[in-house]
Design goal:
It holds the Pfam family HAD_SAK_2. This protein has 164 residues and is α/β, with parallel strands linked by helices. Helix content is 32%, strand content 18%. It has helices at 44-55, 68-72, 74-77, 99-111, 125-130, 151-162; strands at residues 5-8, 24-29, 36-41, 58-61, 116-120, 138-142.
């Protein structure tokens, strides 16, 4: 078992779906030639770095943004380049698959035996990650996609990581 990892989703977690509270700034980016408007908070980067440093965890992206998060998200919130879970685009609802189940299988495989905290907004992610065979010890911190990541979420993650 390696050091724990803190997995970060982007949309709904670092980029809330509604106009957020103070501290957020509007950004525009164009990965893959498509233009997106994002709400990002520059305080998230230092807070996440502090979480990782104070708990001995590594930060990584667990988002459909994959490596694009290093170019378009990380510099805007003060994070360095991070490893990422390679999550291919969701192929659509077929064979009973849901979005949470699709991401969960890739997250569980990438984490292997490492304990992890996953900041995620998909409503079925908790159930789906728990159902993955051989999933490592983990805490899924459910984020309300309308408000995004808060200090309470970071505190819950820190408490869980320190208890390991």
């Amino acid at each position: 078992m390696g050091s724990p990892v803190v997995l970060l989703d982007v949309d709904g977690v670092l980029n809330p779906f509604e106009r957020p509270h103070r501290g957020f700034k509007r950004h525009q980016c164009s990965p893959d030639g498509r233009t997106f408007k994002l709400w990002l908070n520059a305080e998230h980067g230092p807070a996440l770095l502090d979480l990782a440093e104070s708990t001995g965890a590594e930060l990584a992206w667990a988002s459909y943004w994959c490596d694009h998060a290093n170019e378009w998200i990380a510099p805007r919130i003060g994070l360095p380049e991070l490893p990422f879970v390679p999550i291919p685009r969701f192929p659509g609802i077929r064979e009973g698959r849901t979005l949470g189940a699709w991401k969960a299988r890739h997250v569980a495989a990438w984490a292997e035996s490492r304990p992890f905290v996953w900041f995620e907004d998909e409503p079925d992610a908790t159930e789906c990650i728990a159902g993955e065979p051989y999933v490592a010890e983990h805490l899924l911190v459910e984020i309300d996609p309308l408000t995004g990541l808060t200090g309470e979420h970071l505190e819950a993650a820190a408490a869980w990581l320190r208890a390991r």
